[in-house]
Structure formats: C-alpha cells, structure tokens
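User: Can you help me understand a structure? I only have the sequence.
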Amino acid sequence: MATLVSVVIPTYNRAQLLKETIASVVNQSYRNIECLVIDDYSADNTRQVVESFTGNEIPVRYIRNLRRKGAQGARNYGVEMASGEYVQFLDSDDLIHAKKIELQVEVFDKNEQIDMVFCLDEYFSNRIGDTHLLWNLPNDKSYIDRFLYDDAVFHTSSPLWKKQFILRNKIVWDERLSCWQDWDFHLKALISGVRHLYIPYVLNFIRDHTELRSLNINILSKLESKLISVFTIAFELKNRNELTEERKRYLTTFLYSLTLDIYFNSKVLSSHSKNELFKKIIGDLKVVYGPSGRLSVLSFLRGLLFFSKFEIRIFRKVFSVLMNVSNFPSHTWKLIKSIEYRLN
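Assistant: Let's start by predicting it. Here is the structure, written out as tokens:
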C-alpha cells in the first residue's frame, strides 16, 4: 500500500486564497494523502471553504486552534495531528504542482536512508507561469553556509519531510518568531544532519505579495525574530563544534545588517526598543565569539563605523548600551575613545 502523506496548511484569514491552495492538494496524482488545514483562529469564512471539500477522495480536515499561535504554532500542531509517514508543509497562499508529491515519494522509495526531498520553487503573481522567476538554485556550496548568508536554498513548501526525522531530532517551528521561521527551521534541520536529495523540477509555486506581507509585520517584531534566530542558530552550531571562522563572519555580517535596520527604522522605534535590540545584538556576538566576545564586540563597533558610514552619534548610542552590559576594562574604553576621537 502507498505510504500516507500528511499535508499541513496553516492559515489565518486567507479564505479567498485558501480554496486554490487546497485544490492543488486534492488534485495530486498521488492519492494517499490527508490534508490538514490548521486554522489559526481566523475571523473570516475559512471553515466554510475547508468544508466545501467534504467528500473528496483525499480527505480535507479542518482543525481550529483554540488561540492564535501564528503559522509556526499551527505547523507544530499539524505535525502532532499528522498520521502520515511523510509531511508536506504548504503555506495557505501557495500552490503545488499536481505531480509534486508523487515525484518526491518516488525518490523516498528508491532512497530509504534519506530524510527530506526538495524541489525547485517558482514565484507567481496571479497565475502560475506569469513570472518565471525562480526562488533559488542548489549548488555545491554548503547549504548551512548559504542559509547563514541569507541565501535560502529552498522555500517552506519545497521539501517533503520524513516525519520521524522531525520528531527524532525535536525540530520545531519556533513560536517566538513572527517571521524568519523557515530560515530557523531549515537551518536547525541542516545542522541536525538531515540527509536530503534534490529533484530539478519546479514543483512548488510561491505567491508573490511581498509588499502586503511586509506591511503586516511589525518592524520591532521582525527585528526581534531575526535576533532570536541568529542566537539560536549560533548556539546550535557552537554546541556541535561547527561554528567555523567563516560562519562567524556570516553571522557578524548578518548582525551588521540588523544594526542598519535599527538605524533606518529609528523613527518608528522607541528608545527603549532600540536599547533592547542593541543589547540583543551584543548578546548574539558573545554567543558567536565566546570568551573572546569583548574583543570581537570592539571589532564589531569598529567595523560598524566603516562598514556602514554611521554618523558618530549612532556609534555613541550603540557604545553607551554596550558599556552598560559588557563591563569593559579601562584600556578597552581608552581604545574606543581614541577611535571616536579620530572620527570627530
């Protein structure tokens, strides 16, 4: 008998798009599928849309969260409720090719040792094929390094996962994050040693409405999510002795970009929020660099001045927060003051 596949669709107030997404599941050539729609406490007619698929050969189940958990919490709940050996995560605004699951299950059948199969992803605006813009392409570079450098190799809905790999390695979608959940989840899977294969077909289609999505995410929440993710991933790599010098540079560059984000969004962030974000950046640096954290934070400040051409007042702002949390010795203070003096 064919192996059961569980498709997990988290959704919130997307009834107008959800019908097309579910249709792409029930129209799969592979038929031994259950479709679990996890409603994250929607206020629209999501339930009616899901129930309109009652009676299909591929069962579509409506499961409502008792409280809002975000897409990440809905995915975790979906894994708990899934009966299948394989799990397909599918965003409620995206679509999958009619042969996606069939082709990926075939790869699993021929390669029992693997944990995940992923495919190519393509953007679309109104209909499949209207952009021909690929999400990304695999290459020979380490996938961990590519994700660290914000070069995500595959999208949320691209992989088909072996559920036991997710459960055995306790890989969960971090419910603290309002964004960057896929970056965090995929990196944790890669660091845990996921055995994966790639099939060179476009089988996942990502609806491109970036502008609308960015408007719906609070800037403070977005920055906090990025910092939590960097901290978590740096900690995981460090525990496994895989935090190489190159990866430290990747993460430091990432933190540079976040500092720039704070600067360019300074008008919409309170002083308290900025202070807390800067403290988290310093905390992340200390995790990345360990006992040499003080010297690396100093190097970070030096780089910040020249990398971003920051105004001196921004440097002072970061430095004032830094001094409150790091207790630098007097010679470090003198060195930083000399940098400041030369830049005046």
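Now, to help you interpret it: The CA atoms of residues 184 and 229 lie 6 Å apart. The chain has two domains: 5-213, 218-343. Let me know which part you'd like to focus on.
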